[in-house]
Design goal:
The chain has 190 residues and is mainly beta. Helix content is 4%, strand content 48%.
Length: 190
């Protein structure tokens, strides 16, 4: 069980473990998560922000593994052992979601999508279009809906792309129907 806290815990209320950045940092701000182990022990983790002020949390419930994004930086933590598994190499994270079926995390940045697989490898997913940012939306079956932002004069949001969670690929809705519906152009005989 996990709970995002909106303030540091009261000193001594819980065992506190700080998870700091592996390298240089600019921010003095921290985000806090309260964890409950399988044995019912509650503890709090503090996660330093790196470069912005986002705070995201997603849990692989079957494994007791959590990904915390604090200021764009991702931390993978084992809830029961209270230890950091690793710092994600991928930074500037703007969104995060889990796929419980494959014990994987999907993380997005402004320019790409990364899969953190069941062995915690960070794998870039091929992106079929250029965009200025995208967000991970709700899942529908084995499809993870995307909202793509094109920053410009009109601030367009495109919602006809999704991640096929079985094939681990980004696809466009209706592509096959459009391809099959178009008749090949023929030359006219004059």
């Amino acid at each position: 069980m996990i709970e995002k806290l909106n303030r540091p815990p009261i000193s001594g209320e819980y065992e506190e473990i700080l998870f700091d950045l592996p390298g240089p940092w600019r921010e003095q701000d921290w985000n806090y998560v309260k964890f409950t182990t399988k044995n019912g022990i509650e503890w709090v983790g503090g996660f330093r922000e790196k470069e912005c002020h986002n705070f995201l949390v997603a849990e692989l419930e079957n494994k007791g593994i959590i990904c915390v994004v604090s200021g764009g930086h991702g931390y993978l933590v084992d809830i029961d052992s209270k230890q950091k598994i690793k710092d994600l190499e991928t930074d500037s994270i703007i969104d995060l979601i889990t796929d419980q079926k494959t014990d994987s995390f999907y993380i997005s940045r402004w320019w790409d999508l990364i899969l953190v697989d069941e062995e915690f490898n960070e794998i870039e997913i091929q992106v079929p279009i250029e965009w200025d940012g995208f967000f991970l939306k709700e899942k529908s079956g084995r499809e993870l809906n995307l909202e793509i932002e094109e920053i410009g004069m009109h601030g367009i949001k495109i919602q006809d792309y999704y991640v096929d969670l079985n094939e681990r690929q980004i696809k466009k809705r209706g592509t096959m129907a459009i391809l099959h519906a178009q008749k090949p152009k023929t030359q006219s005989n004059w």
